[in-house]
Each structure stands twice: as structure tokens, then as C-alpha cells.
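Chapter summary example.
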Amino acid sequence: MPNRTAPKAPPTKPKAAPKKGAAGTGTRTAVQPSRKGTTPRTGTSQKAATAKTAPKKAPAAKTATAPARTRTAAKISTARRPPARSTGSKSRTSRTPKPKAMEVSYSGRIFRSRLEARWAVFMDLLDVNWDYEPSFYQVGEELFYLPDFYLPDHQLWLEVKGAPFMDTASMAKVLASVAGPMRIPLREAPYTASDRLLLGGPFKALKHGLMPVHTLITPAGPNLAALSHAAFDIEPDGRASINTLGNPWDTMAATGVKAARRPNPARLQQLLEPEPHLRPGLVPDRISRAYNGAYRLAFDGLSRNISDHDVLSAVSRRRSGRPLGAAA
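The structure predicted for these 328 residues follows.
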């Protein structure tokens, strides 16, 4: 029996040896506790756990600061609203079409606008001599003026303006030129200071029994201008004349300094397109033809010339504001 029991013991030992660990197995056993965790390694794992927990606190910090960023963004957006509104107002203002004058070639001169060319034709139809933009003048400390027309036979200046172009500078110039501290001189001897300027506005269709009138600016005192009505007429000798109608209807300061604001639309209407006056008799035929010719004048947009052959035929004996053969 002992012999049978002895052989059974060796097989049992090899089986138990791998479990308990031989020399090679002991190496595995030394490594194994590190995986399962011993006391010193457990402290390291706690630090690692703490390190892993720390990043979890970072989102909490971000969450705490998130409302501040939201409030800051709200403040920035609020600060940007006013500029956005102002930009919107500018875009609305820019939608308003700005006036643009169209140049016209007529009678050897290049006029800056069709309205100026209409007035040149109107005066030619009445045989009124004119000079176009003769010279620059200083009418204020920082104000310089280039009048549109000078009528030498009448010693009168004529300024042609549409309502969109009558700004504060233009208004100050026309007033100061004949009633301000630095009045412009006449263009012939004795070259004294001018005292009459006529405002020429847009032409209208004539109304039966009514005489078209225009605003005449004259001196009314130191740095003060009077506003009156004046009308074209035909004298017994056939010459055209410009006569004042009644007393001045208003006065304005003529200091040679631009006003803060331009005249309002109602004021511009009074200045540039006053209502026609009743006339005892009929409007003279020459006056009617001149107004109708200027009002209905046709233009060629491509060549910038006048295309009204009837009017051109009527003024064919005049050139640059003078009769043909007459010295300018």
C-alpha cells in the first residue's frame, strides 16, 4: 500500500506548484498585486482618482462663469444696437435721389443745367442781352459767388436755381451779392455796387390773364435784403423791361454768412415759383411766346443739344447772348 500511495504524491505536487508559484510563477505573483492593488498602490490610485475628479470640477467652474459670458455678450449686443439703427437711418436717407443737373450746349456756351439753357433761350426770344458766368466775386469772409447771368442793358444779375439746389450757401450768396457787406460791382462804368438780383426758377405753363412774376432782391438797409416781385414787360419802343411790382413782401438778413438751415419747401416756393399776378390787360405776345418757348423747350439727351427747331430758328440771329455782328 505504501508503494501505491507514494506514486500518487508526485503528480499532486506538480499540480499544486503552479498554483502556489514556482520561481517563474513568483515573478507573475509579484506583478499581480500591482494589478489587484496593494496598500501603496492604492494610495496612488486615490491620487489618480483625485486627479480624475479635478477635471470634473472644471466644468463646474465653466458653468459658474457661463452666465457672466452670457451677460457680457448681452451687453455687447446692446451696445451695438444704436450704431445699427443709425446705419439704418443713413441707408434710408441715401435712398432719396440726389439732384443731378444735365449740361446743355447752346449758342456757343455750355450751360450747367437745362434750366439755365431755358433762361438763355427765354432772354434770346426777348432780345435781352446776357453774359453767362462772367466772373467770381467774394461776397463774405469765406463766401465766394459765381453768378449765372448778368444783363448789361438792365444792370441786373440773374441767378437761376431749382428748389433742390437752393441750399444755405446759395441763399447766403444771392442775398449778400447785392445787400451784404461785400456787394459785387456792376460790369460797366462807374462800376458801383450792384443793387438788383433776380431769382429765376422753373418755368410753368402760362395761365390766361395772369402775368408770371419772379423774386427781386434789393438792399433794404445794412446787411438787410428786401424781397419783391418783378415781371418782364414790353416797352412802347419794343424793348423788354423788368419792372418791380408793389412793395417788398419780406426782408432777410444778408450777412455773407451761411445760415444754419436751408429754406423750407414753402419758402422755396415763394422765392423761386411765386404765384402769378393779375394783369389789367392781356400779356404781350412776345412775353407769351418767350415763356411758352422756354417751358416747352425740347432737348436731345445724347448730344446735350436743344432739339426744338422752331425755337432755334427764332433765335438764329443771336449768338452767345448778343445779336449777330454785335460785340460782346
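To summarize the output: The mean pLDDT is 80.
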